[in-house]
Design brief:
Ski2_N, single chain, cytoplasm, 1193 residues, Ski2/MTR4_C, ATP-binding, 25 strands, RNA helicase activity, alpha/beta
Length: 1193
């Protein structure tokens, strides 16, 4: 009988042993105090157990440790009470069809990944502003899951849970088992026990844990929950992290990290990892090669450790494929979801394009439940006019429990952007941005174009960021010398931006010889046109940059990759051309290249076998493939509307490809000066300018509106209010201010509107209107030439402000500041009222109805003041001759204490006397200059304002309230109250949805949807709307085609050809030859599009019907038709001038459209159309177009 080794008994353990009683299988526990005899006999039978019997250990385990009923120590009824509990679940009616709660039942497994378009999404984080009714309706079960506390202990829906804390890490002995059962042994009546439980719960529990890290996480949690106590105070959600502070205690704070790298992390990476450990969201802005991927890798490792999931989204499909390969080798458990591929979707890390994540969120996918992190790579893509809105939608729709990681190129407004995300999500975002480049860059100008001049390379910007004008002028001289010689021999020739192909060729040959001699390869040459890329590569027919060993390696890799294609496809002209180029170490990378070739080129490039790569800008956007040198063929590009210089952001993004971390000490960036040297100012802006700020491209799409309308609890206005474009709204402070103002209004004294004062309020409104009209008029006068002429030195004006009432003044000086123009003037006043801010409190604007001029009662005095435009209430027809300098000097002198009592100087007293004479001559009122007749201001606004002012001024005299003795104080009260009320109304408007900038467009779009019957008048989504939700782009047109049966008469291949107009966006010169049925189909599509376009126009959407119809291009109909009928790719390429890569990409996207139409047909119940789409889809999914990516194999 084998004995189990039990550790020596501790002082707490009783010496125990087992004694078998007879052969009935009963055991007794016996203690043996005698140390002499360590183990007593194990049975009361003489010879121990028969060999056939079960081992004692197994029995003990089974009886004592595994089955509660077998605990023989006490009454078994109690034991059952302790271990079994029946919980009634009430309200199990929550499902994906009626609740946003995470508590709802999961849907059918088939829908768990992508969700279904009848599902509700989960409640987006930060959308907690529920109405009272919604809160009342919220059932017990729908209570929010508390992610902060006890989720790992208490399952949602239950009141209490398990206690997993290790009481002590003692070895398991039977005695320790018994001691834990003690509390069961002496069970008091249940009621008492419950009370005890309560007390112990209130005592602070120290979390017990075997790793510091768990404690660390908890500490992080507490920090994070502090701001929640007073969310209004916490204004800045974005917290910039100081990346210069060294992170010395990093390994102390994270003793066993979830992921270890073979290199020491940079400070900014450590800071990010610390934030991730504390479960915070981060925004990391850094240059391309700085190592942002580290942050993503750590998050993926953390979620694998926590058994949760991470979603990694990237803007470009090619990038998704690459990341899939990289992460697959690192983590193994990685899946990929793009439009056409779905690999191991059950993995803990899912890589997908942002559009797919958006549809998963709208369709309530079950993946979201387990989601811990979403990583957004290349966030600066939010600036993309076409797709930027998708990022905003996803960020707004993400539920509360998901933490966000944003990785971006360096952007100037990272903090502002993070603040926005923090505000809509109600969580802190830590902003970590670093300008440091691991490999510094040197920027050169290159003017060489022949063997003689091949060394002409001039440093323009050194690694520390100094712009060297010396290098610039040297380049200009070198270029000038050559052109002048040329001009002497051949007569003058104007330099143009464009160079001939042979000139280009000599420049490239010279440069590449020079670079390969200096071992500066691999080189990426950015060229901003696809044809230019191809031409440049082809012109290098004499260059050979690879050794024979490299040639063999390239050849075998190329053959192996291409062997996956069908026979005919291997002989495509593009593949043959590229094979010859690649063998010499040259390659081309742009959207016209076949996807499989692009991948071969990328892989060979990253192995260093491609020495020169001619690429367009897309290569810099996603593909993380640094080179030793980057060359700019030109710094001008065509952006769809016209030619322009590169923006600083674009230049930095592309130049940042130079310099491979760990391989090159510095990266080289070369700008070619082919025709002439670029302007210095242009170069300076491009190299040292601020990169593009992140700007909102938020716009309303019908899909978004319909998806939100089908869920009652979400409103489209909520989405609009949270968009980055509305980021300037600061609702929290406004709400706070509104409540303050409301209190102020209620605390103000009541208004007295009895008897004489009954027309007080109308009087106030008239005065206010008069004031705004007068101000508008005054502005118009000041902005006009004649007005400024009139308001010149010596002009007599009427002054009204706190101190003066209808006093005459004369202008002495006019300030030169055109924005806030001030006038220094000499004004008449009473003696003793010279000081500014005197006793007057003319808040009731008496001058508006009392037009008698001010004539001093006692001795006349004067004051010199700066007047603003508001103080000048009228310009009179009179002017005086004054000597301004003397008056001002004399007045200033007499302001000093020792000259205080001097009599005023000659100039002043003359002017004062003149003014007084004028006032006494016209006591009732002075003739003033009329803006329209005298100042010749004839614009409509001025004429209207003048008339309105006259009417208002006359009407003021009719009011009774001005005669009341308490008029002034009552008016002050009214004014105070109205001011508060006006501010309150303004804020209420700003907080309301009425002030949303997109609101009018939203109403227009709703009108379109109603007239097409996608939604009914109450906003409920109808069948057509349901169908449109399925479709991601051009939803209106597709749905209309479906409901008008445009696709029914067509064969599968014809319908595929017809739908190609939705995915093809380029222009083509070739007229397609097509069948008559297809031509009819095209005409019907165009007529439907025209109808939708006109309807949109009627409802007020600014796009014209022609623009709407113009976005559908039928250039590829013939190509797709022939492809679906089985024609080989080589022949198809002959049918069109569109490049092969573009054709492939279009057919791949067409397949996604066909899938959507198939789904839509299913919803409508049109099984014939559904199967037809299936057939069409099968017909186009073949050969080179649907070869799986090399990265995913």
């Amino acid at each position: 009988l084998t004995q189990r080794h039990v550790p020596p008994a501790g002082p707490a353990d009783l010496p125990l042993s087992l004694l078998e009683m007879g052969c009935s299988g009963r055991f007794e526990l016996i203690t043996h105090p005698s140390p002499e005899q360590p183990l007593p006999p194990q049975s009361t039978l003489p010879h121990g157990l028969p060999p056939t019997s079960l081992s004692l250990e197994r029995e003990v385990e089974k009886q004592f440790l595994q089955d509660a009923a077998w605990l023989p120590i006490h009454d078994t009824d109690f034991a059952f009470q302790k271990f079994l509990k029946y919980v009634l679940l009430e309200n199990t009616g929550l499902s994906a069809k009626n609740s946003l709660s995470l508590q709802r039942q999961p849907g059918p497994p088939s829908e768990s990944l992508r969700g279904s378009n009848t599902n509700y999404p989960f409640r987006p984080g930060g959308m907690e502003e529920l109405t009272l009714d919604q809160i009342k309706k919220k059932s017990v079960l729908e209570e929010d899951i508390d992610f902060e506390n006890d989720l790992l202990r208490v399952p949602p829906g239950l009141k209490v849970g398990m206690d997993f804390t290790d009481k002590a890490k003692a070895e398991v002995t039977l005695m320790s088992l018994l001691s834990t059962l003690d509390d069961i042994t002496d069970l008091q009546p249940v009621a008492e026990e419950k009370e005890e439980g309560k007390e112990s719960e209130e005592a602070p529990k120290l979390p017990r844990t075997n790793s510091l890290e768990d404690l660390g996480v908890k500490v992080g949690k507490d920090e994070k929950s502090k701001p929640k106590e007073n969310p209004v105070e916490n204004k800045n959600w974005a917290i910039p992290v100081n990346i210069n502070a060294p992170c010395d205690d990093f390994y102390k704070r994270i003793p066993n990290p979830a992921f270890k790298w073979p290199f020491e992390l940079d400070i900014f990476q450590k800071q990010a990892v610390l934030r991730l450990e504390a479960h915070d969201s981060v925004f990391v802005a850094a240059h391309t090669s700085a190592g942002k991927t580290v942050v993503a890798e750590y998050a993926i490792a953390l979620s694998q450790k926590h058994m949760t999931r991470t979603i990694y989204t990237s803007p470009i499909k090619a990038l998704s494929n690459q990341k899939f390969r990289d992460f697959k080798t690192t983590f193994g458990d990685v899946g990929l979801l793009t439009g056409d591929v779905q690999l191991s979707p059950e993995s803990s890390c899912l890589i997908m394009t942002t559009e797919i994540l958006r549809s998963m969120l709208y369709n309530g996918s079950e993946v979201i439940r387990d989601l811990e992190w979403v990583i957004f790579d290349e966030v600066h893509y939010i600036n993309d006019a076409e797709r930027g809105v998708v990022w905003e939608e996803v960020l707004i729709m993400l539920p509360d429990h998901v933490s966000i990681i944003l990785l971006s190129a360096t952007v100037p407004n990272a903090v502002e952007f993070s603040n926005w995300i923090g505000r809509i999500k109600k969580k802190n975002i830590y902003v970590i941005s670093t300008m440091k480049r691991p490999v510094p860059l040197e920027h050169y100008l290159y003017t060489g174009n022949s063997t003689k001049t091949q060394k002409e390379m001039f440093l323009l910007l050194d690694p520390t960021g100094n712009f060297l004008t010396k290098g610039y002028y040297a380049a200009v001289d070198a270029k000038k010398e050559r052109t002048s010689k040329h001009a002497q021999s051949f007569g003058t020739k104007s330099t143009s931006h464009n160079t001939t192909a042979s000139q280009d060729r000599s420049v490239w040959l010279t440069l590449l010889h020079f670079l390969s001699k200096r071992q500066q390869t691999p080189v990426v040459a950015f060229t901003f046109s696809r044809t230019r890329c191809d031409d440049n590569a082809r012109s290098l027919d004499s260059m050979d940059m690879t050794t024979s060993i490299e040639k063999a390696e390239i050849h075998s890799f190329f053959q192996k990759s291409v062997s996956r294609l069908r026979g005919g496809d291997r002989q495509l002209p593009q593949i043959l051309v590229m094979r010859d180029l690649l063998k010499r170490g040259i390659a081309v990378h742009h959207s016209g290249i076949l996807p499989i070739l692009k991948e071969v080129i990328e892989m060979l490039f990253s192995r260093g076998l491609v020495k020169v790569l001619f690429a367009t800008e897309t290569f810099a956007m996603g593909v993380n493939m640094p080179a030793r040198t980057v060359v700019f063929d030109s710094i001008r590009k065509h952006d769809g509307t016209g030619f322009r210089n590169l923006l600083p952001g674009e230049y930095i993004q592309m130049a940042g490809r130079a310099g491979r971390r760990g391989l090159d000490p510095t990266g080289t960036v070369i700008i070619l000066c082919k025709a002439g040297v670029h302007e210095m100012a242009d170069l300076h802006v491009m190299m040292l300018g601020k990169p593009t700020t992140l700007q909102s491209q938020f716009r309303l799409t019908y899909t978004m509106i319909l998806n939100l309308l089908r869920v009652e609890a979400l409103r489209v206005t909520d989405m609009m209010r949270r968009s980055f474009s509305e980021n300037h709204r600061d609702t929290q402070t406004q709400e706070k201010r509104i409540s303050q103002l409301k209190q102020m209004v209620s605390s103000l004294p009541p208004l007295d509107t009895e008897g004489q004062l009954s027309d007080m309020l109308p009087y106030y409104h008239t005065v206010t209107e008069l004031r705004t009209t007068t101000e508008a008029l005054q502005r118009a006068i000041l902005e006009s030439v004649n007005g400024l002429k009139a308001l010149s030195v010596g002009r007599v004006v009427l002054v009204n402000n706190k101190q003066h009432l209808n006093a005459l003044g004369v202008i002495l000086q006019v300030s030169s500041d055109a924005v806030n123009r001030t006038f220094t003037a000499l004004v008449l006043c009473e003696k003793g009222n010279e000081e500014e801010g005197g006793k007057g409190n003319n808040t009731a604007f008496p001058h508006l109805f009392n037009i008698a001029l001010f004539i001093p009662e006692g001795p006349c005095s004067h004051t010199v003041q700066k007047l603003t435009l508001q103080d000048v209430s009228a310009i009179t027809v009179k002017t005086l001759k004054v000597i301004p300098d003397r008056i001002i000097d004399n007045y200033n002198k007499r302001q000093q204490p020792r000259f205080r009592l001097d009599p005023p100087g000659q100039a002043i007293s003359t002017a004062t006397q003149e003014l007084l004479r004028l006032a006494e001559a016209n006591p009732s009122s002075m003739a003033t200059l009329d803006p329209v007749n005298d100042l010749q201001l004839k614009s409509v606004e001025v004429v209207e304002d003048t008339m309105r002012r006259r009417v208002l001024q006359d009407s003021l005299r009719e009011f009774n309230c001005i005669h009341s003795p308490t008029f002034a104080e009552q008016f002050a009260r009214v004014e105070e109250r109205m001011k508060v009320q006006e501010e309150l109304d303004r804020l209420l408007f700003l907080v309301s949805d009425q002030s949303l900038s997109l609101l009018p467009e939203y109403h227009q779009r709703i009108k379109v949807l109603q007239s097409l019957q996608y939604v009914d008048s109450s906003g409920a989504v109808q069948l057509k709307g349901r169908v449109a939700c399925q479709i991601s782009s051009h939803e209106l047109l597709l749905t209309e085609l479906l409901f008008e049966n445009v696709l029914s008469p067509l064969a599968p291949e014809e319908s595929a050809a017809l739908l190609s107009c939705l995915v093809f966006t380029q222009k083509t010169q070739v007229e397609p030859h097509i069948t008559s049925t297809l031509q009819e189909g095209i005409d019907r599509v165009l007529s439907v599009a025209k109808r939708i376009g006109e309807l949109q126009r009627e409802c007020g959407i600014p796009q014209t019907a022609e623009e709407f119809v113009g976005q559908f291009k039928f250039g590829l109909t013939e190509v797709v038709y022939c492809w679906a009928r089985g024609m080989p790719f080589a022949e198809i390429a002959q049918l069109t001038d569109v490049q092969e890569g573009t054709v492939v990409r279009c057919i791949q996207r067409l397949d996604e459209v066909l899938k959507e139409v198939r789904q839509a047909a299913r919803i409508v119940g049109d099984s014939v159309l559904g199967s037809k789409m299936e057939k069409a889809s099968l017909a186009i999914r073949r050969d080179i177009v649907f070869t799986a990516s090399l990265y995913t194999h």
